[in-house]
Every structure is written in C-alpha cells, then in structure tokens.
C-alpha cells in the first residue's frame, strides 16, 4: 500500500505531494513526487512531510538529494498526529452553499483561497449569523429511487432530491446517512433537509419501519 504525503515548507505552505518509497521511516527517507515541479528542494532545505492517512508517520527533515522526481530526506524529528489537524492548503476555489439552519433559502456563491483539515474559510456577499449551519455543494447525496409506501415516500422524498442533512447533521455520503439513522429508533421522527429543483425542502420521516 502506498503512503501518500503532503510536503510543506517549514512555514506550513504546501509544496507538492509525494509517495513514500522507503519501506518505513528510517535514518534516510526516499520520496517520489506525484507531479512534475520546478522547485529546488535542496534550496528549500527543511521540509515537513505530513502523512495523509492514520498509519503514515509524519516528520520534519532536511532534503539531502533531489534527482528528478525523487527526494532523499534526512529526518530531524517525527511529528505527532496533530500535524494534520491544522493542515492548510492554499488554493483558489469558487463554490456555492445551502442553508441547513437560518432564515434564507436557495443557494449563495462563495469564494475561498485555502482549505484546511479544520474547516473551510470562504467569502460571500451575504452576511451569515454566528452559529448558522451551511452546507457546501460537495455535500449531499442524490436520492436514486424511493420505495412506495416507505417512510421516505410518505414524507414526500422524491427521486432526484439531494439530501443535505438528516437529524440536523450534514451528510455527504450514504455512510453519513446510515450513521444518523442508527442514532434513531423505530417510532422516532427524523427531520431531513433536501435540495430540489433549486430550492430547500424540509421533510420529516416517521421511522415506523426501516428508512432505507
């Protein structure tokens, strides 16, 4: 299994992605860059190598050799699991957001300049309330079909809807929806926020039988 790393300079600016080619973190570490770059890592010197999965050891080290797409790094110190918590990647992006709570409806355009593991900072032309929950367009799962007489059908869920939240929790995958469902019991009511034809639709499922 390949171990993917994000390479940062000592100031925390993302430089490149790389794959660990050494069998493990030892006195000398060899990395292979996943994309071409004109950066001279020998001039950069000290870097941070942040493992992008829980089994990868993050480290701080010095580049001792650069040959094409391969780097040789001498570790200075290993980094703790918190190295990924405030990881920030500079990138310009445009997106839209939808309301989970709040008084407004529809969608609003947003722009951002970086992403981080702790959240997303963005700009919008409209003011938001402190504590208001919103969902970016990468969230939500499309309803492919609805079984007749199921709780979803009785609540008014339609094929083609996008589920943005369930039980007040944003969802971005069927696993998220299943997790929320397991937090409820038969007889409970499960509120859901849907996106349908450019509008927010609120429905409530009565869980008298399995919802999915």
Question: Overview of this structure, please?
Answer:
This protein is mainly beta and 212 residues long. It has 3 domains: 4-84; 88-136, no CATH class; 141-206, Pdz3 Domain, CATH 2.30.42. Helix content is 8%, strand content 46%. It is built from 3 helices and 15 strands. The strands form 3 sheets. It has a 6-stranded antiparallel β-barrel. A hairpin with a 4-residue loop joins β1 and β2 (14-20). The chain is elongated and about 65 Å long. The mean pLDDT is 80.
Question: Key terms for this structure?
Answer:
212 residues, mainly beta, Pdz3 Domain, six-stranded antiparallel beta barrel, five-stranded antiparallel beta sheet, 46% strand, elongated
- Assembly state of the chains shown: single chain
Strand fraction: over 45%
| Major beta-sheet overview | 6 strands, antiparallel, barrel
What is the total number of structural domains?
Answer: 3
Coarse structural class = mainly beta
Radius of gyration: 23 Å
Question: Within the largest sheet, what's the order of strands?
Answer: 1-2-3-6-5-4
How many strands?
Answer: 15
Work out the helix count. Answer: 3
């Amino acid at each position: 299994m390949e171990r993917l790393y994000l390479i940062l300079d000592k100031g925390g600016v993302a430089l490149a992605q790389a794959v660990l080619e050494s069998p493990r973190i030892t006195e000398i570490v060899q990395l292979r860059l996943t994309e071409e770059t004109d950066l001279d890592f020998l001039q950069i010197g000290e870097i941070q190598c942040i493992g992008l999965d829980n089994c990868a050891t993050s480290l701080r080290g010095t580049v001792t050799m650069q040959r094409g797409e391969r780097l040789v790094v001498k570790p200075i110190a290993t980094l703790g699991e918190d190295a990924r918590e405030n990881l920030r990647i500079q990138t310009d992006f445009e997106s839209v957001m939808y309301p989970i709570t709040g008084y407004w409806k529809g969608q609003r355009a947003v722009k951002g300049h970086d992403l981080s593991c702790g959240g997303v900072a963005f700009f919008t032309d409209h003011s938001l309330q402190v504590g208001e929950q919103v969902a970016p367009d990468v969230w939500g799962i499309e309803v492919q079909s609805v079984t007749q007489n199921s709780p979803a059908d009785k609540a008014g869920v339609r094929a083609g809807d996008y589920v943005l939240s369930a039980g007040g929790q944003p969802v971005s995958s069927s696993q998220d929806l299943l997790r929320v469902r397991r937090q409820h019991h038969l007889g409970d009511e499960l509120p859901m926020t849907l996106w349908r034809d450019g509008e927010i639709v609120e429905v409530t499922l009565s869980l008298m039988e399995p919802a999915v």
